[in-house]
Design goal:
This protein has about 300 residues and is an alpha/beta fold. It has two domains: about 130 residues, ATPase, nucleotide binding domain (Nucleotidyltransferase, domain 5); about 160 residues, Nucleotidyltransferase, domain 5 (2-Layer Sandwich). Helix content is about 35%, strand content about 20%. It contains nine helices and twelve strands. The strands form three sheets. Strands 3-2-1-4-7 form a five-stranded mixed beta sheet, with helices on both faces. The protein has a five-stranded mixed beta sheet with strand order 10-9-8-11-12. A two-stranded antiparallel sheet has the order 5-6. A hairpin with a 4-residue loop joins strand 5 and strand 6. Helix 7 packs across helix 8. The longest helix is centred in the C-terminal third of the chain and has 25 residues. It is globular, with a radius of gyration of 20 Å. About 50% of the residues are buried. Bound molecules: zinc ion.
C-alpha cells in the first residue's frame, strides 16, 4: 500500500503544497502567490490556507503524517526557522512550528515535520525521480536569479550543521574579486547568475532585458551574448569543480530558469570544466540537465519520507 506525505515548497514568488505518495504521484497541488507584506503572519496565511486545502486530498496518510518543508534560505534547520532573502517579513520565522500547528488542527494529530533549504530539496527531488535517480551521490544546482545547491551523498541529503551545506553560489572563485552582497569577495553567483550575465552584456552595449533574451541571442550567434555567457560559465565551472573536488562527487544536475536555455549554457560550462576539474577522481565529472518541473516540491516530499 502506498503512503502519502505532505510537501510544502516556499519561494519568493509562490508557495506550493502537495499530497505526494511514495511513488512520487501527486494527489493534489495547491499554489498560492507569496504575499508581498512586511507582516510575517500575512505572508503565512495563504500557506496555511493551501495546507488545509491540500490535506483534503489525503487518503493514505502515514501514522503520524510526515510533512516536508522546502524553503528559500537561509534556513536554521535545527531551530526550524527560516529567514528567506526574498521574503523580508520572515526573519527567524518558526515555519516548522507553525506548519505543525496548522496540520495538527486540521487532522487532529501531531505530524512529524522536517525542513530543508530549496536547493537541498531540488537535489533530493532530482535524485529521487529525476536526472540523478541512477546515482548514489550527486550535487543539484539551481541557476536562476541566484545560484543554489544541495548534495545527496550515498543516498542521504548532506544538510550540514545548520541545513545550508553546498551553498555553491557563495563560494569564492576570485579571491581578488569585488565584494558580494553576502560580504565575501568574488562569489560564483556574482558572475554566473542570470542578472549578472545580463548586466555584463548591457555594459558592453547589448540592448536586451533579461537572461532569456540573452540566451536566445547567444543561440543566433550574437558575439556579446556568447562572450558574457562564456565568462559566466567559466566562473560556474570553477565553483562546480571546487565542489566536486571537495566532496568527491562526479554527478551534477543543473536546473533553474537560466539552465533551460540548454546547450548555449551547457556547452561552455562543460568546456571550462576541463580547466578546473583536473584531478583523476573528478576529471570525468558530468553535468546533466535537470528533468523535473517541480523538483523542489517532490524533494520536500522525499525529505518527508526520511522523517
Ligand atoms: Zn556571496
Amino acid at each position: 500500500m502506498s503512503e502519502q506525505v505532505l510537501a510544502v515548497d516556499i519561494g519568493g514568488t509562490k508557495i506550493a503544497v502537495a499530497v505526494v505518495d511514495d511513488a512520487g504521484t501527486m494527489a493534489t497541488e495547491v499554489v498560492r502567490p507569496t504575499a508581498s507584506s512586511t507582516d510575517a503572519e500575512t505572508v503565512f496565511a495563504p500557506a496555511a490556507d493551501a495546507i488545509r486545502k491540500a490535506l483534503g486530498a489525503l487518503t493514505e496518510p502515514g501514522e503520524p503524517l510526515r510533512v516536508g518543508i522546502g524553503s528559500a534560505g537561509p534556513i536554521d534547520g535545527p531551530g526550524g526557522t527560516v529567514s528567506p532573502v526574498n521574503i523580508g517579513a520572515w526573519r527567524s520565522f518558526p515555519v516548522v512550528a507553525r506548519v505543525r500547528e496548522v496540520v495538527a488542527a486540521a487532522t487532529g494529530a501531531e505530524p512529524r515535520v522536517g525542513l530543508a533549504g530549496d536547493g537541498h530539496c531540488f537535489a533530493l527531488g532530482e535524485h529521487w525521480l529525476g536526472a540523478g535517480r541512477d546515482v548514489d551521490s550527486m550535487v543539484g544546482l539551481v541557476l536562476s536569479t541566484g545560484v543554489g545547491g544541495g548534495a545527496v551523498l550515498d543516498n542521504v541529503l548532506f544538510a550540514g550543521t545548520t541545513g545550508n551545506a553546498v551553498h555553491l553560489g557563495h563560494i569564492s572563485v576570485n579571491a581578488w574579486g569585488p565584494r558580494c552582497v553576502c560580504g565575501c569577495h568574488g562569489c560564483t553567483e556574482m558572475y554566473a547568475r542570470g542578472p549578472a550575465l545580463v548586466a555584463a552584456a548591457q555594459q558592453r552595449g547589448w540592448r536586451g532585458e533579461d537572461a532569456k533574451a540573452l540566451t536566445a541571442d547567444a543561440r543566433t550567434g550574437n558575439v556579446i551574448a556568447l562572450e558574457v555567457i562564456d565568462a559566466g560559465m567559466r566562473a560556474l565551472a570553477a565553483g562546480i569543480a571546487t565542489t566536486a573536488t571537495e566532496l568527491d562527487v562526479r554527478t551534477f544536475v543543473l536546473g533553474g530558469g537560466v539552465s533551460k536555455a540548454g546547450e548555449v549554457i551547457f556547452a561552455p560550462l562543460r568546456r571550462h570544466l576541463h580547466d578546473f576539474a583536473v584531478l583523476d577522481y573528478v576529471r570525468d565529472l558530468e553535468v546533466r540537465p535537470a528533468v523535473l518541473e517541480n523538483a523542489g516540491l517532490l524533494g520536500a516530499a522525499a525529505l518527508a519520507f526520511t522523517l
